[in-house]
Amino acid sequence: MRVDIGDAAVLEEPGRSRGLLDVFGHRHLLSLIVRKEIQIRYRGSIFGWLWSYVKPLVQFLVFYVALGVFLGLNKSIDFYAIYILAGITIVTFFNEAFSNGTRSLVDNAALIKKIYLPREMFPVSSMFVALVNTLPQIAVVLVIAVFFGWAPSIGQLGAIILGLIIIAVLSTGLGMLFGAVNVTFRDAQSFVEIIVMCAVWASPVMYHWDMVASKVPPWLFTIYCLNPLTPAVELFHYGIWFPLHPRDAQPLPDLWLFSGLALVISLVILIFGQFVFRRLEGRFAQDL
Questions:
Q1: Of 8, 82, 164, 203, which residue is least crowded by CB atoms under 10 Å?
Q2: Which range of residues forms the domain containing residue 127?
């Protein structure tokens, strides 16, 4: 490709990519892919977007009655249904973005082999699709919390946003990493399914963090807190469940420190995922 700059001519290699920078340089294309994936999700559905609001509402009722009332978990954790629903919402965002990002290149093999476009576009779009699907769930959780007297501070609202940012960065990095490997080795997809299955138990979703702190050595609890999912889940608990809890409730120790470390770790994973993606990108068309 020849690009004229004044009197000079610069030869630019066709299809040369700048990685994630090119993705956000093609924002219109990114929005088209995201819109297409969302439309496919609700194609043939009578109620469409309504299902995004019905599912978390039904989950709340099930958790409240089956776990909170019948199993008596409301006695150990106040507002247990809101506690578990807040955690599941952010973990579901991670699971959907990570899983779909891993499959995104294989699912779009026909497009990748026909035309050139930044291949990072596919795992990034998977993250945005997952985010769009998560927002109605967050809205339902917040409405339920308001019904029970939710009155958050600015810091608690900021905690919810920070939790979303951590998961968005983490899932995009992992999606690029495993998505690139999955093109050649489809075992990666099965490995991701195991990670996704364990994610809800590797973070304080079904239980409170102090149950872990009381059972494991301090060094192991620190490793547990360094898992980016743990601070992300606790940020959602801090923003949604904590304002409803009695004043003696304690958030995760050093929550903001571990949240900052989670963001740094997620950024490192994103950079590493981009590095592996760029190294394997030349084989995509051949292996697909």
A1: 8
A2: 21-287
